[in-house]
Predict the structure.
Amino acid sequence: MATVDLWGELPDVEKIKTPFVILKEQAELLTEKTDGLLVGEVEQLKTAGEFECTLDIVAPTLNNYHYTLIYLHYDMTLYPLNLSSGENPSVSCSDEDEFKKELGKIFKSQETQNIISKLLAHVRSA
């Protein structure tokens, strides 16, 4: 007797980008844009149905100095998620578009640009 498939058609997960994947892509772009002088590093922790991610800027030639730029907290549903950066208050993002918009604000902010330029100056003087 053949087993009957009661699952139906499963969703195409190729179309779903998790916040972790989006951060990884941006980390790789930072590494490329600085020719590897600074490296974007993303870590993910999973705890009881919740996910936490950080995006660090790493300076390999400065004894792997780490600066944590982004902190995320979300659950299995992905959104809404909480996004924090530095001393700024946490922001809630209701979907992927809002998340990307908020990330862009952080990456382009004067504070982040200053951190990157100062790290690059240290790297080049080492």
Q: What stands out?
A: The helical segments are 19-33, 96-108, 110-125. The beta strands are 39-47, 50-59, 65-75, 81-85, 88-93.
